[in-house]
Amino acid sequence: MSCAGLYEAALEHSHHEVAAVPAALAETTKMVCPNSGMSPAGCHSKLIVGGLALVGIGAAIGYFACKKASCCSSRVNKKIRLGEGKVADTVDVEDIGEKKAFCRCWKSEKWPYCDGTHGKHNKETGDNLGPLIVKKKE
Ligand code: FES
């Protein structure tokens, strides 16, 4: 068979396929939902409701997983005595002297005292953290 003959045969075959589509669609509208006897419309509604329920369940799981992940990543203390349940310190008043600056940014290498690291944090993030300064009355 020549190329032209092959082309014409393919074209003829595709016409038969295209003509068969409306008939196939007409057949599907007569179909019933398997094992239920429901019409296609009822079957589709059931599928849509089931699909929406699955999407809702997926969204809820995603929301709670994200909420749990963000709770841990937003912790303030990322370096100071992380193995302890609570970081609490006691400083004797006599040891304060005239003035001491206590860290409130949780980044100082001299915890609980401020070492100025808050300045770097503020520059990088636009934050405005600073120490608690305790001093004797003048
Ligand atoms: S280093 Fe933390 S407040 Fe200064």
Automatic annotation (TrEMBL):
<protein>
    <recommendedName>
        <fullName>CDGSH iron-sulfur domain-containing protein 2 homologue</fullName>
    </recommendedName>
</protein>
<dbReference type="GO" id="GO:0010506">
    <property type="term" value="P:regulation of autophagy"/>
</dbReference>
<keyword id="KW-0256">Endoplasmic reticulum</keyword>
<keyword id="KW-1133">Transmembrane helix</keyword>
<dbReference type="InterPro" id="IPR042216">
    <property type="entry name" value="MitoNEET_CISD"/>
</dbReference>
<dbReference type="InterPro" id="IPR045131">
    <property type="entry name" value="CISD1/2"/>
</dbReference>
<dbReference type="GO" id="GO:0005741">
    <property type="term" value="C:mitochondrial outer membrane"/>
</dbReference>
<keyword id="KW-0001">2Fe-2S</keyword>
<keyword id="KW-0472">Membrane</keyword>
<keyword id="KW-0479">Metal-binding</keyword>
<feature type="domain" description="Iron-binding zinc finger CDGSH type">
    <location>
        <begin position="86"/>
        <end position="124"/>
    </location>
</feature>
<feature type="transmembrane region" description="Helical">
    <location>
        <begin position="47"/>
        <end position="65"/>
    </location>
</feature>
<keyword id="KW-0411">Iron-sulfur</keyword>
<dbReference type="InterPro" id="IPR018967">
    <property type="entry name" value="FeS-contain_CDGSH-typ"/>
</dbReference>
<dbReference type="GO" id="GO:0005789">
    <property type="term" value="C:endoplasmic reticulum membrane"/>
</dbReference>
<comment type="similarity">
    <text>Belongs to the CISD protein family. CISD2 subfamily.</text>
</comment>
<dbReference type="GO" id="GO:0046872">
    <property type="term" value="F:metal ion binding"/>
</dbReference>
<dbReference type="GO" id="GO:0051537">
    <property type="term" value="F:2 iron, 2 sulfur cluster binding"/>
</dbReference>
<keyword id="KW-0812">Transmembrane</keyword>
<dbReference type="Pfam" id="PF09360">
    <property type="entry name" value="zf-CDGSH"/>
</dbReference>
<keyword id="KW-0408">Iron</keyword>
